[in-house]
Amino acid sequence: MNQNEYNTSVDQHADGMFRFILKNIRDEDKARDVVQDSFEKLWRNVENVNFLKVKSYLYTTAYHTMIDLIRREKRKEDFEKVDVREYAHSEHYSDLGEILEEALERLSEVQRSVVLLRDYEGYSYLEIAKITDLTESQVKVYIYRARVHLKNYIGSIESIV
């Protein structure tokens, strides 16, 4: 890959990567850092990356960088102070987007990532498997479990609207 192809990659993929990471970690500054780190890693490895496969490389790198960031932050948190009432949802609220965001926050990092890659970014199961270093079967299981969790959390659409 040459410098022009690298610049084209930045133009084509930076916004999508930012949206994907932001949906997962909900912090614009950290999402920007993850995207920047991913492009830095691409630049360091630019001779070894095929331009035709740069999208997959970038999303895979961004995903792993995000997971590393989440793991580092989890070490700082105190898991003993989990309030069980946070996991129940009984309020009637009309902002579906906010309810979906709240429901997505309740998923594990892997479940949230695979659901967002599938439903928000439109990747196939095979592409998600390559990005996340999971098998295609594992991806399907994580997506299924995440959707069941979302359905149980949100309840029926009639109760929301």
TrEMBL record:
Record-linked Pfam families: Sigma70_r2, Sigma70_r4_2
InterPro entries registered for this protein in UniProt: RNA_pol_sigma-70-like (IPR039425), RNA_pol_sigma-70_dom (IPR014284), RNA_pol_sigma70_r2 (IPR007627), RNA_pol_sigma70_r4_t2 (IPR013249), RNA_pol_sigma_r2 (IPR013325), RNA_pol_sigma_r3/r4-like (IPR013324), WH-like_DNA-bd_sf (IPR036388)
Domain RNA polymerase sigma factor 70 region 4 type: 98-150
GO function term, MF aspect, one: DNA binding
Ranges of residues in domain RNA polymerase sigma-70 region: 11-75
Highest taxon of the lineage: Bacteria
Swiss-Prot/TrEMBL keywords: DNA-binding, Sigma factor, Transcription, Transcription regulation
A GO biological-process term: DNA-templated transcription initiation
Alphabetical list of CDD domains matching this protein: Sigma70_r4 (cd06171)
Listed NCBIfam families: sigma70-ECF
Family membership: Belongs to the sigma-70 factor family. ECF subfamily.
PANTHER family for this protein: RNA POLYMERASE ECF-TYPE SIGMA FACTO, RNA POLYMERASE SIGMA FACTOR HI_1459-RELATED
Name listed for the protein in its UniProt record: RNA polymerase subunit sigma-24
Organism for this UniProt entry: Labilibaculum filiforme
